[in-house]
UniProtKB/TrEMBL annotation:
Alphabetical list of PANTHER family matching this protein: METHYLTRANSFERASE
SUPFAM superfamilies in the cross-refs: S-adenosyl-L-methionine-dependent methyltransferases
Pfam families in UniProt: Methyltransf_25 (PF13649)
Protein origin, superkingdom: Bacteria
Protein name: Class I SAM-dependent methyltransferase
Signal peptide: none
GO biological process terms, semicolon-separated: methylation
InterPro entries: Methyltransf_25, Methyltransf_Superfamily, SAM-dependent_MTases_sf
Length: 230
């Protein structure tokens, strides 16, 4: 079954992607409970359209949004400007070579992004993660915190992690010392037609068919939360 082309979405359809993720609840409270945000220097790795950056920026001392996609970062920048904030900047970057000074952040967050370098069908995945982890630890100050969010399954009420990411998830805990928990992060749509359109756009026909067959306005999603203090 043909699956949506995420790199194309991130490059050419950032606004529609933003519509999709706007249907999920804010992660501010989840992050603030792990690491108090007020007056911190933050890096958002794989910031996308700013789902994390925009909710953290108002309390942060500074926030740097990094992403591979310039079009996604334009959406983030627009939202931050609209909010009247000035303590931020955006920059195109690769997770494996961050354009950031050593010991420059108190908190690093990454939502649904590192996993694109961790597909176990790619022979380079372990080396990719090694470089990402080295960079994360380099840019965090002593005592700093890293928080990684990744998918544990869309359309499921309990964790159902993709097979091709399970080795990566184990590596985070067993080799890199991250602690794991999971949360529900359901999508709440205005209509079944909207739910079908936006889920099919990003997740493909299988999820969209479930939406239609069950007339879902609330589409369940599970998210993994991995945390590490350096």
């Amino acid at each position: 079954m043909l699956q949506p082309n995420h790199p194309d979405i991130y490059k050419n359809k950032a606004e529609k992607y933003e519509r999709l993720i706007s249907k999920q609840p804010s992660l501010y409270d989840v992050i603030n409970k792990i690491k108090p945000i007020e007056n911190t220097d933050i890096i958002d790795l794989g910031a996308g359209t700013g789902r994390l950056t925009t909710v953290l920026a108002s309390q942060a001392k500074s926030i740097l949004a990094l992403d591979k996609s310039e079009s996604m970062l334009r959406v983030t920048a627009h939202k931050l400007k609209q909010a009247g904030l000035h303590n931020w900047r955006t920059q195109v970057a690769d997770h494996r070579a961050l354009p950031v000074d050593t010991d420059s952040a108190d908190l690093l967050v990454s939502g649904w992004s590192i996993g694109y370098l961790a597909n176990s069908t790619d022979s380079a995945w372990k080396n990719n993660i090694k470089h990402v982890m080295e960079e994360m630890k380099r840019v965090l100050r002593p005592g700093g915190t890293a928080i990684i969010f990744e998918t544990m399954g869309t359309g499921y009420e309990t964790p159902h992690p993709p097979v091709f990411l399970q080795d990566y998830y184990r590596l985070l805990e067993q080799d890199y010392g991250f602690s794991f928990s999971w949360i529900r992060l359901d999508y709440h749509f205005e209509s079944v037609d909207e739910a079908k359109d936006l889920t099919e756009f990003f997740f493909g026909k299988e999820v969209a068919d479930k939406v239609m067959s069950q007339s879902l306005l609330q589409v369940p999603e599970c998210a993994g939360v991995w945390t590490l203090q350096v």
